[in-house]
């Protein structure tokens, strides 16, 4: 089966891409509004792309009624945000935060999510997140006027203590239970894992 993307409507392209490019990590982005309201919104068109500098990127489209999302408004005003990762205990709250909230109602306050101050930026982080990355906007890319690609430079990391082996610089995978986005209202757990031996590369005769 084949498709030429130009033969599909945008919604149909979205369905194809999100049906097969999965599971996708979720950026649960916290930002702060002009009156101090803290916004928390999940974005699954997201990943990290570089370590020097540490860059991440997420895509924010317009709301169905054409309004710009609060996250984008806040980031464009302040140039900063926090990417919080989600694990199983936080998954339901993360999903609920994807609903429609007016700008004067912050998702963390409404959903009883604990906040903690960031170290280098004004936007707070989610206190119970397994990993949070304070970000400054590195670059914005407008896509067709209805979607914004936000690239952030990570300027400070927060890691839940029990998840990290500082000496080995390695995560305790038996303690970290992230969730991934599938499509629509479907998510996946990541505890069913496979370990392969090191790849040997091409074998050549001596």
UniProtKB/TrEMBL annotation:
GO terms for molecular function: FMN binding; oxidoreductase activity, acting on the CH-NH group of donors, NAD or NADP as acceptor. InterPro entries: Flavin_Rdtase-like_dom (IPR002563), Split_barrel_FMN-bd (IPR012349). Keywords: Flavoprotein, FMN. Gene3D superfamilies: Electron Transport, Fmn-binding Protein, Chain A. Its cofactor is FMN. Pfam families: Flavin_Reduct. Residues 19-178 form the Flavin reductase like domain. Belongs to the flavoredoxin family. This is Flavin oxidoreductase.
């Amino acid at each position: 089966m084949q498709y030429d993307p130009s033969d599909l409507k945008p919604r149909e392209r979205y369905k194809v891409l999100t049906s097969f490019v999965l599971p996708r990590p979720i950026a649960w982005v916290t930002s702060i509004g002009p009156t101090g309201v803290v916004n928390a919104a999940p974005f699954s068109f997201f990943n990290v792309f570089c370590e020097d500098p540490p860059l991440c990127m997420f895509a924010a489209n317009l709301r169905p009624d054409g309004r710009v999302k609060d996250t984008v408004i806040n980031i464009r005003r302040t140039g900063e945000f926090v990417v919080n990762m989600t694990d199983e205990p936080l998954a339901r709250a993360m999903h609920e935060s994807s609903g429609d909230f007016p700008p004067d109602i912050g998702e963390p306050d409404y959903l009883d999510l604990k906040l903690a101050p960031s170290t280098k930026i004004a936007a707070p982080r989610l206190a119970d997140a397994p990993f949070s990355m304070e970000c400054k906007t590195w670059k914005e890319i407008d896509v067709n006027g209805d979607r914004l690609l936000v690239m952030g430079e990570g300027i400070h990391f927060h890691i839940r203590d029990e998840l990290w082996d500082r000496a080995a610089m390695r995560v305790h995978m038996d303690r970290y239970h992230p969730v991934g986005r599938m499509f629509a209202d479907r998510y996946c757990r990541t505890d069913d894992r496979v370990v392969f031996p090191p790849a040997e590369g091409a074998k050549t005769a001596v």
